[in-house]
């Protein structure tokens, strides 16, 4: 498989895994629609786009990522998707409370403030972070909540500042996920909780798409499910558990399918025990240290 040459939109091709630092990486698949290679780390199992976008490209892309136009807000389909996402976030934060989460929360990827509003309603003393300084300033003023911006790994926040760090559909986006995980661990108090919600590249539906893609059965749609216009890394429950526990100092307490509302009432019960039945999954992991009584049973 040919690796795309570096251009102003791309960094030089990766020669090591950005998460486990192994050099045992190899071409795996391709997003034919967008012309991007998908590689796999043979050591940890994570998939990733290679080469990755440049910082300048990502800055331009995310400068308009959060903003939503007024006509979109009036679109019933947009409102329905937004309401479904909000309901899933609320259920996830309620689950964190069940797992013993205390009050100080950092919402990473706080976006338009939906997460911040839900967290405040549930009694969290929440702060936010997002990449766009213009949007974060607007959201902070509107909600009277501190919202930080800039490079996440360089945030000037004291170690142990938070009891909970919440990332919903975030860790697949940055090209330095290891830096994010190390920073999150530093920001959490001992025994603090991290919530991750992310797409599941190992879901039953995505496995079928990946197989069809690798067999070149999808034509121009080959690899479209990788969404390389904004997703750079691709995780499964097994891969993220191993990374968190072996490399980043977390103990995984729960992995299950997402908590977003479903039309079929049986689906949430299935995804609770079979996370690969869902196209997204959630992880609750505790920073190794002092483990509070109770936990996430």
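Sequence proposed for the structure above (297 residues):
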């Amino acid at each position: 498989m040919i690796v795309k040459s570096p251009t102003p939109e791309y960094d030089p091709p990766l020669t090591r895994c950005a998460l486990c630092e192994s050099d045992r990486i190899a071409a795996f698949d391709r997003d034919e629609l967008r012309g991007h290679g998908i590689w796999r780390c043979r050591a940890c199992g994570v998939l990733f786009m290679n080469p990755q976008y440049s910082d300048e490209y990502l800055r331009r892309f995310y400068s308009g990522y959060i903003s939503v136009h007024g006509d979109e807000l009036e679109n019933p389909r947009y409102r329905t998707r937004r309401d479904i996402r909000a309901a899933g976030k609320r259920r996830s934060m309620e689950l964190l409370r069940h797992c013993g989460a205390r009050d100080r929360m950092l919402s990473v990827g706080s976006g338009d403030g939906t997460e911040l509003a839900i967290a405040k309603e549930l009694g969290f003393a929440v702060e936010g972070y997002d990449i766009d300084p213009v949007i974060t300033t607007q959201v902070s003023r509107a909600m009277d909540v501190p919202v930080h911006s800039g490079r996440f790994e360089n945030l000037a926040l004291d170690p142990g500042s938070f009891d909970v760090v919440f990332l919903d559909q975030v860790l697949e986006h940055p090209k330095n996920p290891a830096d994010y995980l190390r920073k999150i661990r530093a920001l959490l108090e001992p025994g603090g909780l991290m919530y991750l919600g992310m797409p599941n590249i190992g879901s039953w539906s995505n496995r079928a798409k990946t197989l069809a893609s690798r067999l070149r059965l999808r034509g121009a749609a080959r690899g479209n499910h990788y969404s390389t216009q904004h997703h750079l890394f691709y995780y499964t429950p097994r891969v993220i558990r191993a990374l968190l526990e072996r490399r980043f100092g977390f103990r995984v307490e729960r992995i299950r399918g997402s908590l977003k509302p479903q039309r079929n009432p049986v689906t949430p019960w299935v995804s609770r025990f079979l996370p690969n039945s869902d196209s997204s999954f959630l992880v609750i992991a505790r920073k190794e240290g002092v483990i509070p009584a109770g936990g996430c049973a």
